[in-house]
Amino acid sequence: MTTAGPEGAADEWEESIVKALQPTERRDELVVPAERAEPDPRPDEAVVEVEAFSVNRGEIFKLEAGTAWLPGKDVAGRVVRAAADGSGPRAGARVVGHPPAAGWAERVAVRTDALAELPGSVPAETAAALPLAGLTALRLLRAAGAVAGLRLLLTGASGGVGHYFTELATAAGADVTAVSRRGERLGELGARVVPDVASADGPFDLVLESTGGANLPAALAKLAPRGTLIWFGQASRTPVTLDFFSFFDGPESGTIRHFHYADSDIPDGTDLATLVRLVASGRLHPEIGRVADWADTASVLADLRDRRIRGNAVLTLTSAAHTLPDAADRSSQNAADRATSDPADRATSDPADRATSAPADRATSDAADRAASDAGTARSPE
């Protein structure tokens, strides 16, 4: 395989195979190592060699649903083939990207308007945690409007969206109450942290709700008259029941607004560039609760699904470790593990022992903190 030439045009691109993670449609092991054809980009797409990707609970929901969708919406790496139409970063540029799918692989094609270049001060592991959660938080704040002096209630605040939004909103002058059972970091970011909606001291001018189920009507009851509730997810996967007459008990004439982060007139790449600038200038700090090699993706997905990771989970591909075990190796190893492992040991092992350290600029983040992971964007999240 040859990459793009010095001017960014593709001199030659030999067909080859890339390693990737493939959905299994099995709940016990959502993805397995596989191979697929080299990305075949459209004229407005660049091919990115992935160095790190982030996983989201919404992707887990899709995998559990058994769809043929190839996961991978948050990636960071280096452009190895610039877009044929001349748009976007040149070959060799370090980038963060938000493809619609297929990012859990060695290489992925990404539209150039969904890419942002990275300065040397922002490592790939940090950048990979930005796209879905960061875009959601930035656009939620934009939807909320001028928040200086307003009282805000944020549910499902323990994950990436919650941490990003809290830091952005408090910096904009909002008085934020965040619902999280382990919210030490949210408190450091300026939020008043409560363990559940019932403990929140309302009324609030604005409620941002991402969990659904019984939490939404409970949060709605905390809304001030003529206030707004922005509904941006249903992470509980439990439908919501509302009573018209309950509005008279507090949130009279209140507004409920549906929000989906992808419904934006601003290109993803433009907003990603804003997020990168905030990170590089020290005004936004990704909360990364787990960094691991992509060979451990299946176990990281299980921990994220079971809410044992706070903030974002990031998987890395190193130059020497683009190796994933093939199916035969995995089958033999799994059989050996089952034959030799002690069930008592498996039951008592601390998942925190498996967690790796977060990037150096997030040294204060406790990777072992098991909190409710957010990613409660619309469709919880995508």
From TrEMBL:
It comes from Actinomadura gamaensis. It comes from the Bacteria. SMART domains: PKS_ER. Residues 373-382 have a biased composition (Low complexity). It holds the Pfam family ADH_zinc_N_2. Residues 24-44, 339-353, 363-372 have a biased composition (Basic and acidic residues). This is Zinc-binding dehydrogenase. Residues 21-44, 325-382 are annotated as: Disordered. Residues 25-315 form the Enoyl reductase (ER) domain.
